[in-house]
Amino acid sequence: MNSLQLKDLYDGFRDPDVIKSFQTLIAREAKKLERTVNIMEVCGGHTHTIMKYGLTQLLPENINFIHGPGCPVCIMPKERVDHAYVLAMQPDVILLTLGDMIKVPGSHGSLQDARAKGADVRYVYSPMDALKIAEENPDKKIVFFAIGFETTTPMTAALLDVVIKRGISNIFFHINHVTVPEVMKELIDSRDEHVNSYDHRIDAFIGPSHVSVISGSKIYEKFPKEYHIPVVVAGFEPVDVMEAIYMMLKQFNEGRSDLEIQYKRLVTPEGNLKAQALIEHYFEKVSLFKWRGMGNVPDSGLKLRDEFAAYDAEVLFKDILPYDEIDDHKLCICGDILRGFAKPQECSVFGTACKPSSPLGSCMVSSEGACAAYYKYGNLI
Other CB atoms closer than 10 Å to residue 192's CB: what's the count? Predict the structure, then answer.
């Protein structure tokens, strides 16, 4: 008996014949549309799927993708990056974070720059790695710079849960978790009359898949009900995205605005209730959280509840953390890209002064960023 391999799990979702079949169905529905339909994929993972597999080439001209802000590294403002930098430069601190975060430029430089100056900055694959690092360095303060949407928030909560139960005294948390529905609402509400032309309006959302595994699809109910904007929660494989587009076009042509789940193999309306309870126990909303290039978005961020302030790095290090407002690079249009007002190739420094090896903005830094996707897969446009 042959052993199961990873490719056996995704081959069917990359089947060229299935993709072509959806291409035919989409073309049939697109002919019935009265105008171009703008579909925003909120998650950067979907942007990379669309670019990597050249899906734009398979679709009719009256279907347009608008790229959204669903990249947790991309939306991190310089003020928060500066917090991480200052913390990392403290002699008694080991700063931990996830993946691409170490490359995001702040006003003092990136965490990568801090490490080059001698700071102890480490990226971890799992927040639980902090436990071993704390045990090996009892004389150090281990600061976990936590980032991400609903997908990664339960992992931070689970780490804190272990820290408390084991009585670990040298692990602290700098919380930068954000939530998706609030920024989706902001994206709609901020499109005033002089911007909300057919070129920039949002007609439908492809809902994030991994976020929805945790939160459930229920968090998007307001958009079809209150804004009459369809939402289809889709997986990350090319067949998933093509099927989601087909489902959206069916809604348009049938005069519907519904919330639908394409990614039924993992997403339910309720989501992961245990993970939600863990998040609710340790976190609460902040009234405002600044998103890079977008400004303050109400109720879109999380912080530790007051009863867990002893583990909050922002409380412990409040006297050294900077809070001045910082503007983004003048030539970088990442804010417009995150809002769906522009595409990467419209930026004057895209692919020249701004590249993955020398990013001016956060959209080029992250592996989920739209600029990084266009740079890597631009030949497929």
Answer: 7
From residue 294, give the alpha-carbon distance in Å to each of 69, 125, 182, 335. 9, 28, 13, 6
* H or E stretch at 174: strand 171-177
User: With b meaning 16 or more CB within 10 Å and e meaning fewer, what string describes 15-43?
Assistant: eeeebeebbebbeebbeeeeeebbbbbbb
The backbone torsions φ and ψ at residue 290, rounded to the nearest 5 degrees and listed phi first, read -80, 130
Token output for 254: 């049938």
Amino acid at 47: T
What is the rounded (10 degree) CA torsion for 10, 67, 180, 367? 60
- Residue 235 near residue 206, CB atoms below 8 Å: no
Distance of CA 287 to the CA centre of its chain: 20
Q: State which amino acid sits at residue 271.
A: G
Chain segment 320-360, per-residue pLDDT in tens: 999 888 877 788 888 888 888 888 999 999 999 998 888 88
Q: Rounded to an integer, what distance in angstroms lies between the CA atom of residue 207 and that of residue 222? A: 13
- What is the number of alpha carbons within 13 Å of residue 2 lying toward its C-beta? 4
Which of 125, 75, 70 lies closest to 96 in space, CA to CA? Answer: 125
81: phi then psi, degrees, rounded to nearest 5: -60, -40
Q: pTM score > 0.85 for this model?
A: yes
Q: Are 322 and 52 in contact (CB under 8 A)?
A: no
| Paired residues of 207 in beta bridges | 233
Check: CB of residue 74 under 8 Å from CB of residue 334: yes
Q: How far apart are CA 293 and CA 181, in angstroms?
A: 18
Strand partners, 297: 289
**Cα(10)–Cα(39) distance, integer angstroms:** 25
